[in-house]
What we know:
The protein is α+β, with helices and mostly antiparallel strands. It has helices at 3-19, 22-26, 50-64, and strands spanning 29-36, 47-48, 67-75, 79-88, 97-107, 113-120. The protein has a 6-stranded mixed beta sheet with strand order 2-1-6-5-4-3, with helices on one face. The mean pLDDT is 92.
Amino acid sequence: MSASTHLETISRYYDGCSTGDVDLMRTTLAEDVVHFFLAPNPGSAPVRGGEHLARYWRKVHRLIDAVWVVDHILDGEAEAVIEWTMFWTPQHTGRRVATRGAEWFTFDTDGRIREIRSYYRQHEERDTELDAFPYAERGYSGHGQEGSSLHTPAVEEVRA
Length: 160
């Protein structure tokens, strides 16, 4: 698989997460996919299986109006590591928050996602990101621009 193929697959996966489109997510996931989460974030138990993972993200999307953006990618033959931003709205504040993180993906021989290892710290009260990192200058997404130089989410409306 080439870098552009991995980016395309990961972008489609996140477009499915950002719209709650179970069928779209399923086209990117191996049947036996496992998604591992960093504890102690909410919902940090692993999610196993393509159908289960897709329905999990549909539920998350509906609860917090989440939109994911791929900001950067490093790619290998059967693995890719990305930096991403999740824009979301905590139910109790109603104020949009940006959570930045990184994920390690492995792929099966058909190019579907087999494993995701997710690294981030989620806070409801504030953005989480690297201190003083020049996100905008490097083409990363940000408030008012829920898209990056690599990926503009396929959502009905991009929030400003």
